[in-house]
Amino acid sequence: EPRVTPLDAAAAALDRRAFLRAAAAVAGAGLLPTGCGGGTPPPSDVALVVLTPRTYAVFNAAACTMIGPRGAALIDARMIDPAAEADAILARSPALAAPLSQALLVLEFGIWPLVRKVRPFTSLTIGGQRAVVTDLAESGVELKRALYGGVRSLAMATFYASPTSRALTGYPGPFGTGDVTITDGMVPNP
Question: CB neighbours (10 Å) of residue 35?
Fold first, then answer.
């Protein structure tokens, strides 16, 4: 008599119809609103043009995971607002606006196996968000790496363009304007 493993027994009990019901329940759980705050909304003085309040929150949450703890503290304290800067850039770049908005929605509402989570991105802990971002960055799937690369590029550009971030880097700026030359940025820090 052939040996039946627990996995074989579970697979036999799970017919196609039961599998589809379970898959639909998991997919539905990832798409339904959870009431988990949805991240930090934009301040009342920020008038969004391209981003929605939800994609604004997703962008800042993703930026926090990509920038690191010192930068995240500046974003959480609202000393730097990468999402507001990103919205302004996207308003001037309509060709980028639609793909980045879609990427943020996939990051927020995409579920496993496309994105390694079942709850909205903004409802995850910072550790959970880091795990999702790391999975995107290290994936063998080009689409996942492209999603990561697009969001990361804009997050880094908007964060480090802020004068407040210059204390983290130790470099003056912005370069090429006013009294700050590009040569000033090439001087090594003591």
Answer: 7
179, exposed or middle or buried, with CB in 10 Å at 0-12, 13-18, 19+?
exposed
User: What is the Cα–Cα distance from 67 to 23, expressed in whole angstroms?
Assistant: 34
Q: What is the mean pLDDT of the chain?
A: 81
The answer to whether residues 79 and 71 touch, using CB atoms and an 8 Å cutoff, is: no
Give yes or no for a contact between 80 and 164, defined as CB atoms under 8 angstroms apart. yes
CA distances from 42 to 82, 83, 91, 170, 182 (A): 11, 8, 16, 29, 34
Q: Which two tokens stand for residue 91?
A: 């308003």
Specify the DSSP element, H or E, that contains 128: helix 126-138
pLDDT at 10: 55
DSSP result, 19-33: HHHHHHHHHHHHHS-
Q: Are 60 and 122 in contact (CB under 8 A)?
A: no
- Roughly how many angstroms between the first and final C-alpha of the chain, as a whole number? 75
Rounded to an integer, what is the distance from CA 121 to the centroid of its chain? Answer: 8
pTM for this predicted structure = 0.72
**pLDDT above 60 for 22:** no
50 close to 91: Cβ distance less than 8 angstroms: yes
Euclidean distance between CA atoms 129 and 135, whole angstroms: 10
Rounded to 5°, the CA angle 158-161-166 comes to: 130
